[in-house]
Amino acid sequence: MQPTLSRALRCLLGSKKRAAAVVAFWVLTAGLLAGVAPTLESVEDNASANLPPAASDSMKARDLIRAELPGQDAIPAIVVVRGEGDGAGAQAEEAVGRISSALSGDARPEQVTGVISTATTPRAAAELVSEDRDTQLVIVPMTGSASDESFQGAVGEVRALAADRAGSAEVAVTGPAGIATDTVKVFSSGDKVMLLATILLVLFLLLAIYRSPLMALVPLLAVGVAMRVAETTGALLAEAGLITVSSQTASIMTVLLFGVGTDYALIITARYREALLDEPDRPRAMRVAVRRTAESVLASASTIVLAMFALLAAVSPALRGFGPYLALGVAVMALVAFTFLPALILLLGKGVFWPGGVDKAAARSRGAGVWHRVAALVARAPVRVASVVIALLVAMSAGLLGYQESFNTLSGFRTATESERGQRLVQEEFGPGESAPSTVVVRAGEDLRTTTAPADVTAALAGADDVSRVDERPRFSEDGRTAFHEVVLDHDPYSSEALDAVGPLAKTARAATEAAGVQGATVLVGGETAQTADIRSALDRDTLIIVILVLVIVTAVLVLLLRSLLAPLYLVATLILSFLATLGATTFFTLTVLGDEGLGNRVTAYIFVFLVALGVDYNIFIMSRFKQELRTSPPDQAIGAALTRTGGVVSSAGLILAATFAVLMTQPIRELFQFGFAMAFGILLDTFVIRPLLVPALVRLLGDHALWPTRPAALREPSVPVRPAGRAVPDAAPAPAPGRLLRAFTWIAVTEACTWAGLLIGMYFKYVPETTELGVRIFGALHGAAFVVYVLLTLLVALRLKWRLGRTTLLALLAAVPPFATVAFEIWARRTGRLPGPDAVGAAPDSPDTV
């Protein structure tokens, strides 16, 4: 590969003329794509990202409702009207009359298909008027897609008409139409601010790092080119229906490219300055720099791209549609970093280092004094350093005890919206469930109107737990084979209690249908609550699959890069500890300190994918440099040199990457705020704790075995002496027993780790579906973290004792962990009721049709 890479680099960076051609190619490509591609906003799909999988029961119910009840595919806007003062009831009634008249007249938006209010449908007064008669609802069905500008404009017209006709009554427009419109508005309001803040922040940090205006602008220009190419290519692919892009994905793409792009720029330019110490010819020095960073940057980009593609294994649209566009962006950014960035630096010549000059820039590549002190600390007390860091990470993970998720979109807005105000009015005056009723759909092979099933189902649902009211008269399809029962729960439609009630509703309806003599009926639950429950189920399944895939991908990349079986294990273990610590700190800060009702339902999966994929970058950079240093130095000196040489550049890269993600905290959306905080915190944790302290300490303790089965002697160049001159060569001796014990212990640890992973997965599938409590998942996560810590500590103790541990002792210690944890888990699950007792083992499972 090296000869091929060298020829390619000579072709692209052999002279200033060739560099100019490379820069011109990228500029022309960006310009041509911008001329033929649609705008990214015009192809964004924000609707499907908030839906459950197409095969879920709630989506089947939605399709049945649309097919069997014409006109039910409309998106309702709910106008809430509340009177003021002594004559509040009369005031609200008059306002509803005026609003209904306006929305039924010729001046109404064309998307409005009808009006349901006490003025147009008096028989619906029981559902539309509050108990004190001070508040009334006006239901306004609207056609179109919530993501279209015309639909959002129509909602704005409805709001304007309602406000104009309300008089002195309080009015607010909410419901699915109002919520969708406000969501788009909240997202779009922060995009420009976020982009400007990102550019200014990155520019400030680059100026502080490089102390050169031109060198600070080069990474920004590279990111700008990559972003333009990625956005236009993504828009073309989205227009062709090959990928989906949402507003949230576009926002994350912005900060991701700025962070990753500047990271790659810092790595390449640092090696360029280092190469200038020995090579005065700038084109040749740049080729050396790109060649020496190619392996690590390629591994970094490949990890991120593959991790993004792992999201294609998800069934939930929110995760599945997230990956391809971001993978495209990172791939383009890597190509730009390898070609456009070095070519532009060569074109700028010596001026790129103004005002300090080439010599000062090259001298800074030797490493700052602080990193020499950090390396000395790790070399002096590796056991103490590793123990303190691991204890700190475990302490941060304790924040997971307060972990809970939120599926309420409105509570996630960090700015006031009309739909949130209207939702609050509905809950105060009508009850929490009235804002989003559920629909229980019963479909049979016979005309249900000729049976007692509809009445029996209505009565059974009215008496069910968590139900506030049920419409007395269900609606039927034209052939009478499908009945639709509207059910209002007595919980917030997006609360965990409401989501948990969806399954029992289906069981109740099915039991009543069978008791009425109707066999083989299909029972489904539709509506916002049912769809959210299916989203939750899909995300739980997807998160587990994605965690496994991403860990496999990261491990495989590290194995290929480092040619080691042991190193990927302890490096991945540090990533898992970092994730648990970050998630625990984020949970504590956002829920306990800020008072959020829960983490956004997709935030945990996002944090894991991005933190592991990006966090491994810094491990890649230091370990690949360690591997290079082993060619000329023994392991203890090699890790010190790797830490010293990469300390400044990796810390700068991590600081910039964390800062770019922190910009997401300026967004008025809970999910982006929490994701931005978690990523900034986790990256800083990786950059300043795990990468400079924990990883070097583990490598120092493992010594010659750090890259097992590869040995340092196999990496040393032939010309490098492996012992001091003049020292006598001792007689050859057989390999010491500790080497064999190390190999045995390593394989035992690998086997135990795989066994433990299998047990956790098995326990997840066996126990978690029996409950909606998060305790089981938290318990499993903490035990997984405890096992990782156990293995690391055992390694440290064994190394401290120079591997003077009996083989039987090691086997006993390791073999005792999984059985003990499994028994403890089962006892805990039985005592808390999450696992049925022995007398329930033979009970029949639930019907497969249960929602």
Q: What is the CA-based Rg, rounded?
A: 31 Å
Q: How many β strands by DSSP?
A: 10
Q: What distance lies between the first and last C-alpha atoms, to the nearest angstrom? A: 54 Å
Which geometry do the CA atoms define?
A: elongated
What fraction of residues sit in β-strands?
Answer: 5-15%
Mean pLDDT: 80
Number of helices: 29
Structure explained in plain terms:
- With 851 residues, the chain is mainly alpha-helical.
- 65% of the residues lie in helices and 6% in strands.
- The chain is built from 29 helices and 10 strands.
- It has helices at residues 2-13, 16-36, 40-43, 57-68, 88-104, 125-128, 149-165, 175-210, 213-239, 247-275, 282-310, 317-320, 323-338, 340-348, 358-363, 369-380, 382-397, 418-430, 453-462, 496-515, 528-562, 566-593, 603-629, 635-662, 670-702, 712-715, 737-767, 775-800, 807-831; strands at residues 75-82, 135-142, 170-174, 405-406, 438-443, 467-470, 475-476, 482-489, 522-526, 599-600.
- The strands form 3 sheets. Strands 5, 6, 7, 8 and 9 form a 5-stranded antiparallel beta sheet that branches. It has a 3-stranded antiparallel beta sheet with strand order 2-1-3. It has a two-stranded parallel ribbon with strand order 4-10.
- A hairpin with a 5-residue loop joins strand 7 (475-476) and strand 8.
- Helix 23 (603-629) runs parallel beside helix 25.
- The two termini are 54 Å apart.
- Residues 719-739, 767-774, 801-816 and 834-851 have low confidence and may be disordered.
- This is MMPL family transporter.
- It comes from Streptomyces fungicidicus.
